[in-house]
Amino acid sequence: MSYENRNLYPDCITITRTVEVGGLTKPQLIQKMQQHSIFMNELGEKLFADDNFTTSAKKYTLKTVELTVRNLGLPEGATTTQIFNSANQLDLNLCPLELGPHLRMAYMDQAEGYSGKPSRRNQAPYGSITIASEILNEDKNFPKGFYLRRIKGVLWLRGYVADEQHVWSADDHFIFCIKKDF
């Protein structure tokens, strides 16, 4: 089975977004998410509360791209490290962790992820979009990052755990930052 180059980034279907990030403290971000009726799970709250999760006082703009693991050249799925390495080879960057809440507030019309499908254990949920970001803590029980999801009409910014042996599905969606030309 061969994998055609036309299915690889950048020659594949992607979704790009430009997102304004920064300018808010963590308490201000939480308040703004509450005003937008955005919920967080316990892992998201734990990640948010960690001292290593910082926010920028200055506003800046990021251009992001959403694509599948398959579009990174990994048609059989891959571990987080393999996904991040493949993205780097395709000139994509990891996102700052603070992109999560800002992107969640900017992307209010996310498609429903629940749709009556059964939950998947130890896999990314249907309709979820994982934000590729630097891992703050190698402890297997500490959240590794954020993902976006809409469940029965409710918007979520959720944290997740995944160890290095976890294999993401080829159809799982990730968001990366597009490298800027300097």
From TrEMBL:
Q: Say yes or no: keyword Nucleotide-binding present.
A: yes
Q: Does the keyword ATP-binding apply?
A: yes
Which keywords does this chain's UniProt record carry?
ATP-binding, Helicase, Hydrolase, Nucleotide-binding
Tell me where on the tree of life, at the top rank, the source sits.
Bacteria
**Molecular function GO terms recorded:** helicase activity
Name recorded for this polypeptide:
Helicase
Species source reads: Oceanobacillus chungangensis
